[in-house]
Amino acid sequence: DVCGGRVVDVPRTEDFTLDVDGIKRALTGRTKVIFVASPNNPTGGIVTEKEVMELVDTGKIVAVDEAYFEFSNVTMANLVPGYHNLIVLRTFSKWAGLAGLRIGYGIFPIEIAKYLMKIKQPYNASATAQVGVLASLADIEYLRANVARIVMERERLFGKLKGLGWLKPYPSQGNFILCSLPAGKAEEVWQQLRKKGIFVRYFDTPLLKDCLRISVGRPEDTDALVKALKEVK
Question: Transmembrane segments in this chain: where (predicted)?
Fold first, then answer.
């Protein structure tokens, strides 16, 4: 619960796509905001404009979390001026590497922005975070080049993982790739990789219990991971 509100989770479908019908069925008169992540973490999938518009048409405020936008270049920001109930949220945590500073921004309809300015904390962005943002913007071409390298390596990693044959990588628009493994195998592989000094994300949840999420690193990181996966199969 947050400030008297209750979070209602609507699971994604078995192939990790957005369950728009499920979201609409979960709406009640008390529903205030629909949150959707695109690209989604941990699947890396994006939502379509059609899906977002279907949610916007419910009349509820729709907040699209685009924390990984820079790795996909697919955004709903251009739609915000045309709708009173659509919000896009961004962060400097991923593409600029400022996760520890907790700094980001939003693209809002004017009326919602005015309301948020009335209720927000007076000093919600630290001086350190502001300095970090300004430094990032001053060196934005370098950071964009880093993003381009990660995207290129993501596609290479996807091909390498797919070539192993015994796990299934899902196409991703983030800086990570989700893989499904044979039933009951994910935790075992996770533990064996840890022993080799390779850390990936294991999810002990019903929908993701047979999955691992792998962050995209440098080419040599990809090579070390693939070598280790061949050994732990």
Answer: none
